[in-house]
Amino acid sequence: MSNFYDSIFKSAVDAIIVINNMGIIEAFSPSAEKLFGYAENIVVGKNISILMPKKIAMEHDGYLENYRKTSNAKIIGIGREVVGKKSNGQEFNMHLSVGKAEDESGNLKYIGICHDMTPYYSVKNDLNETMENYDNLSNYEGLYIASIDKNGLVIKSNVLFSESGFFDSNKFVMDFFENYKFEHIIQKTLQDGFYSISKSSIEIDEKNM
């Protein structure tokens, strides 16, 4: 490997793994060391299956054997999400792209590029939790919640607000809210993204009208 390509190999953010046609690891980038928790000298010479859960590992050699016999690529040249296994046994989702190349002697090599999907799923789970909490809040029967633009147009609202009759057919807030200082409502909506008011406070004010 030339100095230039060696520098690319060592500085790549995603993990790079090179194996031969028997599935034996021949090169293991620093990012691969970080991702899987193995030092290069530990995994070089071992089967790539060491980085896979047992069930997937049992299938992997079959993929290589199938390609050697038929040239029918089931995983070569295809990017897909798979499950990897770290040195401590922890399994994680990663995106794997596999390519092939020949070395100076014409020997076939497979190059795998692995991208850790853990941060993606962490953000996705946080977002789902946030949306679930928002849905729980927005459907709480004691709160009228709405997002209103500066002209008084209701952009989005929860079920209670939608069924309240507070806005007309064009979704503009009606004069009912004059008692709640409309300018304050707009200011809070622009600041927080929504405005909420409790059902009980409206009922109390209605009695005082």
UniProtKB/TrEMBL annotation:
CDD domains: PAS. Pfam families: PAS. Residues 1-54 form the PAS domain. It comes from the Bacteria. Signal peptide: none annotated. Transmembrane segments: none annotated. PANTHER family: GAMETE ENRICHED GENE 10 PROTEIN-RELATED (PTHR31600:SF2), TINY MACROCYSTS PROTEIN B-RELATED (PTHR31600). This is PAS domain S-box protein. It comes from Marinomonas foliarum.
